[in-house]
Description:
It comes from Streptomyces sporangiiformans. This is Thioesterase domain-containing protein. The protein is of the alpha/beta class. It has two domains: 7-117 and 207-272, Alpha/Beta hydrolase fold, catalytic domain (Rossmann fold); 120-204, no CATH class. It has ten helices and seven strands. It has helices at 62-76, 89-100, 120-133, 140-156, 161-177, 184-205, 209-212, 226-234, 252-255, 259-273, and strands spanning 7-11, 17-22, 45-49, 79-86, 109-113, 216-219, 244-247. A seven-stranded mixed beta sheet has the order 1-3-2-4-5-6-7, sandwiched between helices. It is globular. The two termini are 27 Å apart. The model has no long low-confidence stretch (mean pLDDT 87).
Amino acid sequence: MGGPEFWEESRSGTTGELILAVDIPSGENAMGLRELVPLLNTAHTVWRAVEQAHVPLEGGSLAAYVEPWADAVRSSGFRVRAVLGHRVGSVLAGAIAEALGGPGQPPPSVLLFDPELVDTDMVVSEFRRMLADDPHLLSAEEVTRLDRDLDSVAERCLDDPAALAVRLQSVFIRAADRSGTRARATTERLNRAVDRLSVLALAEAYDVIPVWSRCTALCSSSPGKGLSRTRAALLLPEAGFVAREVSFRDKHTEMLSSPVVAQTVSELLTVSEQR
C-alpha cells in the first residue's frame, strides 16, 4: 500500500483513512516520526514519505516537488485525516496538505513538530552533517578548502539561504562529475546530497506561513530547535507563525519518543476527526 516509490506504510489501520508523516530531509540514521507512530492511539493507517531522488531545482518549486506524493495519495482513494510534519518537513507537510485540498475540499489538518523554516545556519549544518556522516564524499583537499571558505560563503549568503544551498550543492555536483573512477555507491551518495540541498532551497522559497497559521505546533523545550530557532534566526521573537503552540518539557531529541507527546497527538487527531 502506498507504493515504495513515494510512501512507506508505518502502521496498518482499519478505517481506510490515512495519516501522512513527513520528516524530509532527515539524516541517514534519524528515526524522526518513525519513533512517534508506534506510540499513537489511532486506528488509521499511517504512511511516511519516502525521500525522492532527482529533485528538480532549476525552474522548480516545492509545489511541483511534492506533487508525486500528493498524486499517490489521490490515486489510493483514501481520505487523509491529517498530515504530520517534523522540522523542515513541516514545510513539505504544509505543501502536501495544500495540494490535497481543492474546490469544495479543504486541505487536511496539519500537526507540526518543532517546525522550522530554512535559514543559513541550517543549510551549513546540513552540509556539514552530510560530510560527517559520509567523510568519503569529498577528498581531503576539498574538505580542507571548504573548511577555509565555508564561513565566508555563508556570510555572503546570510540573507539568502536558498542561494547558499545552491552554492554548496555545486560542491557535490563537481565532486559527482569527477567521480567516474569512484565506486557507484559514492556517486549515488553524492547525488543524494545534491538532492537534499535542493529540498532546502525549494522549501526556503515556499511561503508556508498561510498554512502554518491554521496549524497546531508541538514544541520541545530545546531553545535551538523548532519555532524558537526560527524566531531567533529571523530576529522575530514575538512572531506567531502558527495558530496554536503546545509546549512540552521534553528535549528535541526526546520529543518523538515521549508517551505524553504521543497522547497529546492522539487526542488532537481525534479532535480533527470530529470536525
